[in-house]
Amino acid sequence: MIGRLNHVAIAVADLDAATSVYRDTLGAKVSAPVDLPEHGVTTVFVELPNTKIELLLPLGEDSPVANFVKRNPGGGVHHICYEVDDIIAARDKLVADGARVLGGGEPKIGAHNKPVLFLHPKDFCGTLVEIEQV
């Protein structure tokens, strides 16, 4: 069901510093920051030959990432994102197999302007999983 690894998301407290690490220290190509108020984050994507790194900065106190950053002030891996061909079919199979879909179960438009869903970390070895329709 899952396809390629789309990205690994890293929550950070300082987006400029994190961007500098990837751009200046590691020599990666990085995007401009984009505010996504509907998701409560500002994102920067680090382009790699085989995948992406998504840097997440909480956008406001109500951000779902804000508590993560408070617990991990140095930042850390927040979630991984896999590609799926059909997000509704993937959701239905996951639910039928006992997985929990977060946020009511209806896809939202993600940072790549494609439908996404998040899956409960307790169902996936302690890892928050995002699926994105490609």
Give the helices and strands, then pairings.
Layout: E1 5-11, H1 15-25, E2 29-30, E3 34-36, E4 41-47, E5 52-58, H2 66-71, E6 76-84, H3 87-96, E7 108-109, E8 115-119, E9 129-133
Parallel strand pairs: 1-5, 6-9
Antiparallel strand pairs: 1-6, 2-4, 3-4, 4-5, 7-8, 8-9
Note down, in words, how this protein is organized:
- By secondary structure, this protein is an alpha+beta fold.
- It has one domain: 2,3-Dihydroxybiphenyl 1,2-Dioxygenase, domain 1 (Roll), CATH 3.10.180.10.
- Helices cover 20% and strands 35% of the residues.
- It has helices spanning 15-25, 66-71, 87-96; strands at residues 5-11, 29-30, 34-36, 41-47, 52-58, 76-84, 108-109, 115-119, 129-133.
- Strands 1, 2, 3, 4, 5, 6, 7, 8 and 9 form a nine-stranded mixed sheet that branches.
- A hairpin with a 4-residue loop joins strand 3 (34-36) and strand 4 (41-47).
- It starts with a strand and ends with a strand.
- The model has no long low-confidence stretch (mean pLDDT 96).
Mean pLDDT: 96
Described by the principal axes of the CA atoms, the overall outline is globular
* Domain unit count: 1
What is the CATH architecture descriptor? Answer: Roll
As a percent range, the share of helical residues equals 10-25%
| pLDDT < 50 runs, ≥5 residues | none
| Total beta-strand segments | 9
Radius of gyration: 15 Å
CATH fold-type name? 2,3-Dihydroxybiphenyl 1,2-Dioxygenase, domain 1
